[in-house]
Amino acid sequence: MNRKLFLLVILVALISKQTYAQNLIINGGWVFDTSTKTFEKNKGIYLVNGVFGTGSEQILNWEVFNLTDEDYVLPGLIDLHAHYRISYNQEAYDDTVAMPKIFLANGVTSTFPAGEIEPEKMWDLQKEIDANKRPGPRILHSGPYYGTAAPDWNPDFTEKDIRERVDYWAKRGAYGLKAKGITPEHLAILIDQAHKNKLTVTGHLDSGFRNSVNPQDAIDMGIDRVEHFLGGDLLADTTNAYYSLKQLDPMDPKLEEIIQLYIQNGVYFDATLGTYGAIGLVDSPIFFDWAYERQYFTPFTEKLIEGIKPSDFNALCAEIYPVKQGVLKRYYDAGGLITVGTDRPLLLDNYLGGGIGGFFIHREMAAMVEVGIPAAEVLYFATQQNAEALGIEDRAGSISPGKWADLMITKGNPIEDIKRTRFVHTVIKGGRIYSSEELKNAAKGKLGPEK
Ligand SMILES: [Zn+2]
Questions:
Q1: What's the whole-model pTM score?
Q2: CATH code at 262?
Q3: Are 103 and 79 in contact (CB under 8 A)?
Q4: Which residues pair with 32 in a beta bridge?
Q5: 95 and 199 fall within a common domain
Q6: Which of 3, 319, 332, 353 is 20 to 30 A off residue 281, Cα-Cα?
């Protein structure tokens, strides 16, 4: 080989070494096996070029990462209702400064933003994260909302307008779409066109009041997932969903009908339970025993939050919370498909209780366990089942060869105490290792407007 060519080969080797993540073996500790929903002794986790390997790869220089017996490894968490949104002074924007670091620090390696306020900005964020220019979870784009929740929504959109909007964002690489504030006519078109593009649709729907859509009708149209409310006849369409839900008796035998409709159609339900407890200022250690999150706000934002007084909405959520608890438990007992999402935009024009998205996934999981769902099931929902619900189970959801090398490592067994998922200390995404503490430190004082 001549000298010039030799140098070129060395150069290419150096560049590609930087492009690819390290080849790594993780030894020791315990690993969550999504097929048995138990922690097994770690027999070696192999990470090769950003995906999980089998260990049979021809690699000369494995890096080795040794864990202790106190370390518990989980597939990276997936948040299917992961808002980056901040609202302040009647204006909304997506935060790309602190939110991405806070999600990743908490073991959330994949986020479905469930309605992007500034889709272009979110696409730029994703590109920078993917190029390792800044740390953050995977952005599994939802694209903009479909419905009045989108700043650019026009209630007079024609069928063609909606089909084109779907095609446009599907082509851009959306992973699924989200409806909020949509009419029945528009939703039917959205679902049809999304399915033509092999994308799932989820919806923040309502009771059917004032030309809104009751989830029961959305299921008949073929919706894939539903957020917040199960719907059905018990959610009366004579008032909006929140007021209707407040009056619902979770023990009412008629609830069985809507639960069975979900099961028969394989529709996933994302209860976003915890956020109602937090907004309702419910007195539970789930919501109030780790108030360290204030340090993430900018000084201006912290002052702003201190000045916001609780409103009627907080009182309403306090009434809704026990209803949602009862409904979710019945839905679980009947065998309904559950997903996990946080729904914690930072809405600074309202008082929305403690808890930042990112940290909140641990609360959501703890809230599910509190109603009586086994912790092992909840861990499964937040990983493998969430991946299946979004249709990415070939790439995410479990520690299996060929899937994205995404995982989190926490101290102590979360099946014995779900709150231990909070003690995540190391996160690996695409084979790249992140210290939770470093990510958190980089986000402190950065969340929310500066002035
Ligand atoms: Zn939401």
A1: 0.94
A2: 3.20.20.140
A3: yes
A4: 39
A5: yes
A6: 332
